[in-house]
């Protein structure tokens, strides 16, 4: 059936005839507030086919209150009618239409005669790209968002800050931005506009307390720990570096005030983002045992050790995000000890199955996003690369890992189906745009298929057939 070319596979698709529908290249809607959606459709159609959709009623976008809020219907015979009760739904219908419509040499359009009813199983279908490890231009970010739109991926987590770079602009601490590799306020505004038109939610990511070397280099007087022998790394008996200048001082009121001020500024930069990611993982917390300010803070607040301080600090930052009207997201990183400090409405990305296991997070009442390293990571290293076939064999309630120290290494973790698992996210780390974009396209298509449809509905052979076709289509669009 022709619906097998659509990614992700629609919930219901009925072929109405073996004959192919022939349509004139024209588009309209009576819904007055859908002008942006019409413009998005026309823009992508031109980029795919290199000629324009005219004004006319061969393809029509229709408001229908009976369609579920995040869903759409598509009927194609003598005309193509795409119906939805929301802008989100109509954009998903447009993405499906772009995958179905073919242009003929005589200037007409063809598509299967088909009836489709479709909606997502899971709300959170995400892509993360690491801008602080491989700076992307604004135009490259827009193309990445194009891929999200085409495969109905709603969330784009942008890892703006890490040890290497601080890529956001700032008026609060102007020298914190990395010179030559940061965005302007105007570029951020344009990125917001572009994402909003396509129904994509940007999740800006800030890093605290670890992964903060770029912040410490710019403002050591604010963020650095207070350790005797300044500039000297603290080394454990096993030779591991405990403080390499990547973790901020958790006991300093000045550092906390700066963190909260930067987060408030980020919220203002991204007015349409309900979430702010605050990092929270891979922090060299042993350094706090040598920091006079942190030791004093722990004594004053009855905090037993650095593990409890870790949770307490992440909890304070998370609460600030709630206070400014957003929901914080953190990486699985804080330990079970001190979990009482973390506001329960904080969303946790479960990725490593090492610091805090997903089954414990669920039992503690957190909502989680599945970012299991295997098979949802694209990493610029010698680590194994996972393919669309690997992702098709996975499901949203399953965590795996290649790393022997992970609990999911020999015994992959599977939890019972629950709404507490909001969805999943593909993560691309340490790549330039040119290095990652094809890998993202390949794997994001598979992840979308497996999260839009939690119950697998497509075998490997069928998926590979439509995957080949739609990868070619999106490459044409972003070329």
Account of the protein in words:
The structure is a single chain. The chain is an alpha/beta fold and about 475 residues long. The chain is about 35% helix and about 20% strand. It is built from 14 helices and 21 strands. The strands form four sheets. Strands 1, 2, 3, 4, 5, 6, 7 and 8 form an eight-stranded mixed β-sheet that branches. Helix 4 links the parallel strand 10 and strand 11. Helix 1 packs across helix 14, helix 3 packs parallel to helix 4 and helix 13 packs across helix 14. The longest helix is centred in the C-terminal third of the chain and has 20 residues. The chain is elongated. It starts with 11 loop residues before the first strand and ends with a helix. About 5% of the residues have low confidence.
Structure keywords:
22% strand, 479 residues, alpha/beta
Walk me through the topology.
Layout: E1 12-23, E2 26-29, H1 35-49, E3 54-55, E4 59-63, E5 72-76, E6 80-84, H2 87-100, E7 102-103, E8 109-118, E9 124-130, H3 138-150, E10 155-159, H4 185-197, E11 201-208, H5 213-218, H6 220-223, E12 234-235, E13 241-243, H7 253-269, E14 275-279, H8 292-301, H9 306-323, E15 327-331, E16 347-350, H10 358-363, E17 367-370, H11 373-376, E18 377-379, H12 388-392, E19 398-399, E20 413-414, E21 421-429, H13 433-452, H14 460-478
Parallel strand pairs: 2-3, 2-4, 4-6, 9-10, 9-21, 10-11, 11-14, 14-15, 15-16, 16-17, 17-21, 18-21
Antiparallel strand pairs: 1-8, 5-6, 5-8, 7-8, 12-13, 19-20
């Amino acid at each position: 059936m022709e619906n097998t070319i659509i990614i992700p596979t629609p919930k219901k698709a009925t072929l109405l005839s073996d004959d192919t529908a022939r349509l004139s290249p024209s588009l309209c809607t009576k819904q007055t507030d859908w002008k942006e959606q019409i413009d998005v459709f026309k823009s992508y159609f031109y980029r795919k086919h290199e000629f324009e959709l005219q004004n006319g009623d061969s393809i029509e976008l229709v408001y229908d209150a009976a369609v579920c809020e995040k869903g759409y219907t598509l009927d194609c015979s003598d005309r193509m009618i795409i119906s939805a009760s929301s802008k989100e739904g109509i954009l998903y219908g447009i993405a499906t239409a772009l995958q179905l419509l073919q242009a003929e040499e005589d200037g007409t359009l063809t598509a299967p005669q088909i009836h489709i009813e479709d909606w997502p199983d899971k709300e959170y279908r995400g892509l993360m790209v690491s801008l602080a490890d491989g700076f992307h231009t604004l135009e490259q970010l827009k193309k990445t968002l194009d891929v999200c739109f085409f495969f109905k991926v709603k969330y784009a987590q942008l890892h703006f800050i890490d040890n290497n770079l601080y890529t956001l602009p700032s008026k609060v601490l102007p020298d914190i931005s990395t010179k030559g590799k940061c965005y302007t306020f105007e570029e951020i505004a344009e990125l917001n506009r572009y994402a909003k038109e396509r129904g994509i939610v940007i999740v800006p990511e800030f890093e605290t307390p670890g992964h903060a070397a770029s912040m410490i280099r710019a403002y050591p007087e604010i963020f650095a720990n207070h350790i005797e022998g300044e500039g000297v790394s603290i080394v454990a008996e096993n030779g591991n570096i405990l403080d390499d200048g990547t973790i901020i001082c958790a006991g300093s009121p000045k550092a906390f005030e700066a963190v909260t001020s930067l987060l408030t500024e980020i919220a203002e930069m991204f007015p349409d983002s309900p979430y702010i990611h605050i990092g929270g993982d891979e922090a060299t917390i042993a350094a706090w045992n040598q920091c006079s300010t942190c030791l004093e803070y722990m004594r004053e607040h009855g905090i037993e050790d650095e593990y409890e301080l870790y949770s307490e600090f992440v909890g304070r930052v998370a609460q600030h995000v709630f206070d400014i009207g957003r929901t914080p997201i953190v990486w699985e990183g804080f330990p079970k000890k001190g979990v009482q400090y973390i506001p329960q409405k904080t969303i946790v990305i479960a990725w490593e199955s090492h610091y805090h296991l997903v089954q414990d997070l669920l039992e503690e009442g957190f909502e989680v996003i599945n970012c299991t390293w295997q098979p949802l990571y694209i990493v610029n290293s010698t680590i194994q690369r996972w393919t669309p076939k690997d992702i098709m064999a996975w499901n949203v309630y399953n965590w795996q890992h290649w790393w022997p120290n992970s609990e999911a290494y020999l015994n992959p973790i599977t939890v019972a189906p629950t709404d507490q698992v909001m969805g999943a996210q593909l993560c691309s780390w340490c790549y330039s745009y040119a290095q990652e974009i094809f890998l993202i396209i390949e794997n994001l298509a598979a992840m979308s298929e497996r999260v839009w449809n939690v119950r697998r509905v497509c075998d490997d052979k069928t998926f590979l057939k439509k995957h080949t076709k739609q990868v070619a289509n999106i490459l044409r669009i972003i070329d």
